[in-house]
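[Automated response] Your request has been received and processed.

Submitted sequence:
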Amino acid sequence: MSEFAIDPSRLLNPLQTTSNRLEAQTPFTLPSEKSNPPSSLDYETLNPKPNQPITGQPLTGRGIGLAGAKQIAQFLESGKNTDNALFLAKNNLGDAGVTQLSKALQNDKLVKHFILSQNNITSFAAAGLADLLKVNHVIGWLILSVNKLKDAGLVAIAEGLKENKSLEHLIVDGNEVGNEGMIALAQAIQTHPTLKTLVISNNAITSLSLPTLLELLKTNTTLSKLDLQNNRLTDDDKRQLREAAKKKPGFILYL
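Generated structure:
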C-alpha cells in the first residue's frame, strides 16, 4: 500500500451507486442557450448526488499523485473493479500517473466516466489517452479541463478519436489549445458515431479554425452541444457559426 492507504475498491467512484446507476442518469446537462453554461472544472458539481458516498474520502482533490495512480491502475488491471466512474480531478497525477491509468483502462469494460481535470497533464499523457480511445469502446465521458495539453495533445487525442466508437462527451476547456489542435480535432470528429458534447472554451482558437468548424457543423450528425466561449473568434466568425448552427434542429452553441 502507498502512503495514502487508498482502498481502490471503495474509492474509484465516490457516489453510492451500482455500476448501472450513473448510466440511467444524465451526467451533464448544459442549461438553456440564453444562460451561461456551468463551469466544467469540477465534474461532480454538475451531477445529482445520492445521499451518501461510498466512503468519506472521495478521490477528487486528495493529491494522490503518481503513487495513488499506480495503485488504482493495479486494481483496475486485477479485474476486481465494479464501479463505472473514476473521479480524479485535482490530484497532481501528472503525465506518468495518467499514462498508468490509461494503460490500465484499455481492456476495462465498466468505467464510463474518466475525470482528469486539473492534473498537470501535457501532450505526453495525451499519447496514452489516444491509445486508450483507440481500443476502449466503453468510456463515454473524458474530462480534461484546465490542463496543459496544448495543440500537440489535441492532435494526439484527435488521432485516437478516429478509431473510437463510444465517447459521448469531451471536455477540454482551458488547455492552451490553438488552431492546430482545434482543426485536427474538428476533422477527426466529423464522422464520429457517438460524440454529443464538445467543450473547448477558454483556449486560443481564432478565425483560422472557422472553415473547419463550419464543415464540422455541416457534416457531423451526432454533436448537439458545442462550447467555444472565451476563445479569439471575431464577431463575424461567431455570426457564421450561429447561422450554421441554426440549420441543425436542437443544436446548442455557446460563443
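Summary generated for your ticket: The beta strands are 85-87, 113-115, 141-143, 169-171, 197-199, 225-227, 252-254. The radius of gyration is 18 Å.
If you did not submit this request, please reply to this message.
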